[in-house]
Amino acid sequence: MSKTIVCDGNEAAAWGVARSRPDMVAVYPITPQSSLAEYISQFVADGIIQADLMDVEGEHSVLSVLQGACLAGARTFTASCGQGLAFMFEPYFRTPPLRLPIVMSLVTRDGITPQCVWGGQQDAMTVKEVGWIQMYCENVQEVMDTIIMAYKIAENRDVMLPVNVCHDGNYLSYGVEKAEIPDQEDVDAFLGEKNTNWHVALDPERPMGVDPLTGGAGGAGPSMFVRYRKGLCKGMQNALGVISEVHGEWALKFGRSYAPLVEEYRLDDAEYAIVTIGSMSGAGKDAVDAAREAGEKVGLIKIKTFRPFPLRALLDAVSKVKALGVVDRSVSFGWNRGPVYQEILSALYHLTERIPALSFIGGLAGADITIAPFGRVIEMTGKALKGNVPDETVWLNEND
Predict the structure, then answer these.
(1) Are 241 and 184 within one domain?
(2) Is the overall model pTM greater than 0.85, yes or no?
(3) Residue 26: its pLDDT value, please?
(4) Is residue 206 part of a domain?
(5) Residue 283, exposed/middle/buried by CB under 10 A (0-12, 13-18, 19+)?
(6) If you average pLDDT over every residue of the chain, what do you get?
């Protein structure tokens, strides 16, 4: 039987892991992920999670030992953020080309310096090009459910890639809501039999080389490297369809539905829209509702899957409006814009008609993006319909 609890996002993630029955877990605590590591450790100690818990000295070793476990056929889990993710980067960068279906929570936080341990999305956005699938959650229930779905996506034979389930530090890591823990038998039936690394598994009876040297003397040459890269890109594109299929299966079995790639909110008759990602989307929807009551024809587009980028789904949404206001919780320093905004600009190239798009950056260092700053986003985006488009990024929370 399923049961309903009141929990924060980190506990919800731990329950998602528990229901997915991993074989090995390695997690090193770092704010605001620390309580997730503590929940996982307690669940292992209590027998809720029947898995080997690896006690290692830091994040680099965390992912390194899980690579070995996954190569041997184990279902694995870890979590990190911020400087822990930076310390993990070498094995993190190496995981996707090895086609290892590891699931990892990123409890997103802003970067340092100046010293900051608060929520943001700078860490996840900084590693967006490494080859991990990235899905962003809006609320606590979505965190739990997406963790479970992530295993079915990662382990699909047409994908075989690691997945980051991203939930915002502070707002979701510590935010408390009601959540339903699905029945174990139902999750077992949903995920099916473990088959985590059918194409390469370490076996003393069948020794093999993993990660061969390419391009040098005696190596296979650049052609093998090209095949690796091309195969990874194909797996990422395959993931778009698999993500949609898995979300559809989840909705049928558990009765909870999430837009797998891009969510359209009040977009049918909208003239313009704001674009959100992560936990800010709830406040954005409230702001859209308030603006609708005031007579504004505004909608919202929420990005759930950011990697692989959901180009076609996004184009379907943005083609319905005549202006966009994109809100980021991180910075693309080379462009003086937000990274989601830059992705949106690339997508808009595929439209037959150009529409204005405004860049907003807010929620840095854990700052609130409430209805009030979203009201400003809506007001300025509405003015863009009449040609009033600012040349520079609009920084929210600058005077908070």
Answers:
(1) yes
(2) yes
(3) 98
(4) no
(5) buried
(6) 94
